[in-house]
Amino acid sequence: MADQRRSRFPAGIFTSVMLAGAACLPMAAHGATPAQEVRFVVVTNWENGADSGDEPGEYQNWVEREHLDEKVPVRGVPDVVRRNRAGLYGLVLRHGVTDLAAFVLDPRFDFHHTYWLFTGISGVDPNAASVGSVAWARWVVDGDALREIDDRTIPKDWPYGLYAIGASRPNTLPEAPNHYGSVTDVAELTRAYPLNQGLARWAFALSQRVNLADDPAIALRRKAWTGFDQARKPPFVLMGETLGAERYWHGAPRNRWAQDWVRLWTHGQGKFVMTNEESQTYQREMRTLATLGFVDPDRIMVLRSGSNFSVPPPGVPVTQSMGDEGPGQSLAFDNNERAGEPVIEEILSNWKKYRDNVPS
């Protein structure tokens, strides 16, 4: 989601606890009935009110338009999974990463060939795109674990007081791993989670000509963004990275940090487009589950839509625009589903082709 960001417990903790519980399940749970192969899961972060029939949140358009009519009870989280007759599952993470781990660790389901689409609304960089635009990520970059010095007390040649653990100044990668007692390899300090870029480009190609919605009120608001050509455009589909950070940041100085942070950890190949609070947590969890053999990391996609900008328009105080995602939320919900639908349709309609061969 955008700036309705909610705190999540660290990824990996829930997986470890649930794995212990799964190992203690009665043998009947692992009996002769084979696990059901799950083909596709669309993952959303939250929903206000009911899943259908009222004002939409991140989940409702998927439920209604994809006819996710059947509720699927999952032990411990009975009201987060739905599915339709075509084989699409929907997951709303009402309890954060707990719901994700519970679903994947349920022995009734087989996720070895499952495609995953992590969706949601975000703050969008006005240098990259407009409110209502939708971006396919090639990396999810984690903005949580870092060193911080108050910007008022930093050395004069520093742009800000945020820098990588193990580094000596901003915009440099870690030099040594021993800043965490358990880390022995500097590569373990990485803050970028690479996605399957071939799959991301394939998904982008399918969705880039989708007819996205626009809104007259949002179109009028765009005019305030003088000097930001991309921000003034009607919604469009692009490729660009997602930055997840539980800190709710806003404004031009931190936007510069976000651009630099994404560029740093992707070695100059990634471009900051979307920011939210939970995407990094879910990608950490998915990589834990992949390491344990439950999911295929090459089948994970991330699609984010902009509900508000990460900096205010020219002449507007930063405190006035902080959290101003309300007007753009409905448009972002709408276009998120519009852009993702053709990818889901293509994979499910041609399952024999894509079950064993990931598109690229």
From TrEMBL:
InterPro entries for this protein: Pur_nuclsid_perm
Signal peptide, first to last residue: 1-31
Keyword entries, A-Z: Signal
One Pfam family recorded for the sequence: NUP
Record-given protein name: Purine nucleoside permease
